[in-house]
Amino acid sequence: MTGMLRVDVAIIGGGLVGTSAALSLATSGLSVALLDKGFCGAQASGVNYGGVRRQGRPPEQLPLSQRAHAIWPELAKKIGIDGEFSRSGHLKLAQSEADMAALEAYAKAVAGHGLSLELIGHNGLRERFGWISGSIVGASFCSGDGHANPRLVSAGFATAARRAGVQVFEQMPVENFTAIGGGFALETATGLSVRASQVVNCAGAWADRFAALAGEPVPLSRIYPSMIVTEPLEPLLTVNIGMEGGGIYARQVERGNCIVGGERGVALDDPDFSRPTAEGATSIMNRTAAYFPALAHAQAIRFWSGTEAAMPDRNPVLGLSATTPGLIHAFGFTGAGFQLAPGVGEVIADLVRSGDTETPIDAFSIRRFLPVANKARTEQGSSAVPSTEPQKTGVPS
Amino acid sequence: MRAAPLIVGAGPAGIRAAMTLVAAGLRPVVVDEAPACGGQIYRQPLIPDGRTPAGRYGSEAAKAMRLHTEFAELRDRIDYRPGTLVWNLALGVAHLTRDGKSDSIAHDGLILATGAMDRVLPVPGWTLPGVFSLGGAQIALKAQGAAIGRRVVFLGSGPLLYLVAWQYLKAGVNVVAVLDTAPFTAKLRLAAGLLLDPRTLLLGLRYAAELRLAGVPIRFGVEKPEINGDGRVDSIGWAEAGRVGHLACDAVAFGLGLKPEAQLAELAGCAFVFSERDRVYVPLRDRAGRSSVSGVYVAGDGAGIMGADAAEAAGERAALALIEDRGLAFDAGRARQLESALKRLSRFRDVMAAAFPFPHDWRIADDTTLCRCEEITAGEARAAIAQFGIREINRLKAVSRIGMGRCQGRLCSGAAAELLAQETGQGIDAAGRLRGQAPVKPVPLSLMDRISEVAE
User: What total of structural domains would you count in chain B?
Assistant: First the structure.
């Protein structure tokens, strides 16, 4: 497709962040072009684990997470499908007394954020969640959290955005964008050029290239969270399961399949795609059988992993560009972006419309990766300080 | 010392490959899902059942016996692992499982001789008990001495349609009818095959002739088949040149040719190309069977449907390529000979594809199950395509669950691609192919690692 298109906002990346921002902007009357190098929702947004949880996030993410939290039950109204969203609760397991102490400390640290965490001891766990192995010493329960189906949610937002008038261009990689005369010119691989007053860079694991084009190099790395899924089974996992310190995370979908994540996959020759390792998948399977003994003889029918952007401090980059007026960044969710995404879309829409948002996002500024700004930020004690949740790896949402 | 090569599959291609590697002084590992060698076509019975090879394999008995015997003679010179599934491939390592335990084998050189499975398209009633694939019906007879029913209708297209019907006839089963989805005129194209493979062709004609002599009705140009029954097949209906047909039966064997089992080639990272003849993506290979990945070779029906004789030649040819690439002496003259035999068999296969054409315009009714693992109807698939503006099969899988169940799309992905192509007005090649993932077949969560160390 060639030619030239003029719009108010051009969005690079058709993941959940891009499509939810596009939907919000189009609904408020702006003209929007959304460009994806492949298909909307085909990368991390569509293949992630599907956890919709606030529990376990660092405190600086919680206001944004709460904003998203309010949107999830409204999906049917917003995009026409509920995305199999279930407010099942999120149960975070402790394997040791030290883990339990960490969960208690977390609950204290986020007490003011409205998560209503409930600490459950060993006996309580046996009574209420008898399908969990007796080796688990306790847990923290967040009853308002849950899970949803990323395949459907990401496709649903893209479809809703289209219906709202967003011009969606799939299989159209953006090759370059330049600031010209108070706006931007985007050039695509297929020859289409787009002129836009504002640009949103929400290109996920591919976003660093666009940040660099704006003179803002970021230390983005790629991670490949990997999952296994069982055949459909009778209902067993009544809640979304996480583990203190990483380990595995597990949920059971409407159809009955249990999805269990953990470990990391490896990139394929085409680095846009990845695959779990056999060792990693076997480890996930064996641990699942150990934590949930009823699943020991269940069959795993598929493994997969996705390509996700990670930042060194595990916080996303979200906010205005430090170099280029009219450019907004939203990427690097480090395996925990699914729950946040609908809220991020709203924040982006705020930023486009007014240049500001009421949701605190200072901790996510791209300025923290500029050498000087980074120093200033550490002194403020925001997310460069270790997270209160001592996880060894990014736990995909 | 370099690790041993690995051969996956012990059918005609895998057996010939193993013999060729052994002759070159190598000691390959041969992993096969079946308890005994032979592949699907020369499958051996689980227990002796008193039948002679001629009774079991008919006209192909001599070939079957030769392969079984020659493979048995290799026993001390290969590391043979029957009853073992390769559920994953990574760089130079194959992950295996046998009896719930897993193992991994580092290898240097990999020959994938993974064979084929039946290709089917959904028809109303195709999930009823009593409906089998043609290949499944044949295996029941060959390996277990069992028929799928007492009054059996054979439906579909492909050489197997007449062969299996004839085998059932010979076994004393009441063959109610052969319903060929291709028009009779397609069979006239067989004449072109006489010079290429007269033996196979004449055998096929003999099967049809003997079926007729036995009074079995053979119908051509069969459309809109519909299998009926309440909890079990009791009849089949169809349309044919403006008329309708209906027959009582208690089983239906149904198939529309074969499709390659190419999941391992995908996990090995091989590039694929669309095959017009097979209407699916197949691993890209050169004439010798080298895939796009160095050290990985593909041979036999798993690399594109060519039949058992071609599989033997391709298995040997791929092994010669491995030997050559390993820097060992190889017989270039033999390699050329095999390549020219394969070329001729490929032309014959073109003839067979024309004589037994795939029904391109197959319309799957909305209320017919498309993906039986996930219980998705064609109507639900069409609704998902429309609702989400889907044009590509992995996206269709994402929004509809098609291909997401136990079989991982092995059974339904072809039909889903046909339906997607029809709905979007594009070619089936443009619909793409499902990205493969491990495990190739389901494995238990309690799968335990490492049952043994690798011998070499």
Answer: 3
